[in-house]
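User: Can you predict the 3D structure for this chain?
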Amino acid sequence: MLPEEKRIRTKAQLKEWLAVECGRYPLSARRILPYLLQISEGAILRRHIILLRTTEYHTNAGHRLRAAWYYLRLMRLQNRYALHIPINTCGKGLMLSHVFPVCMNGKSTVGEYCRVMPLVSLNGDDSEDRAPTVGDHVTLGYNATLIGGITLGDHVTVGSGAVVTHSFPEAGVTLVGNPARVLNKGGAADAAGK
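Assistant: Here is the predicted structure, written as C-alpha cells:
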C-alpha cells in the first residue's frame, strides 16, 4: 500500500490526480456519447480511474458512507472487466493500456506514472505476507508477473511474459525472461532522454 503521505487526502489532490490521469484518456466532441454509454475502451478506463481515485479520496478522508458507495461502484466495474486494482496501491499518473485482466495484491505498491499492460499480476508471498514494490515511471509489459516481496527501481521496463522473483533496485533496466534477468541497463531512462 502507498504510504500515508502519498495518498489522496484533499479534494485539491483528487482534482490534480484526475487531471493527470484522465488526460491520458481524452474526451472530444466525438467521444462524449461513447463515454456516456460506456461503449469505448477509453471511456471504460476513464470511468475506472475516476471511480478508483474518488473511492481512495473518500476512504482516506474518512467519509464512510460516500466511501462505501463509491467502493461498491468500483467493485462492480472491476469485476465486470477483471481490473482488480485495490485502493491506495498505485501512485499518481497510473496508465492502464487496455481493458483486460490486471490483478494486484492489496499490499503491493506501484509508484508514480507507471504504465500497466494487460494480464499483469502482482502477487504477494503467502508465507511471509509480503508484496511487490514498484518504483516510479515503470512499465509492466503484457503478462508480466511479479511475485513476493520484491522491489523494482525507477524507470524499469518489465518485458512481456517476464516473471520477476528477485529485486532489481537499479534504475533504468529492462527485465526479460522467466525467471527475469537484466537484458540491458538504461533502456527506459535512455528512451526518456535521461
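Residues 41-61 form the longest helix (21 residues). Residues 188-194 have pLDDT under 50 and may be disordered.
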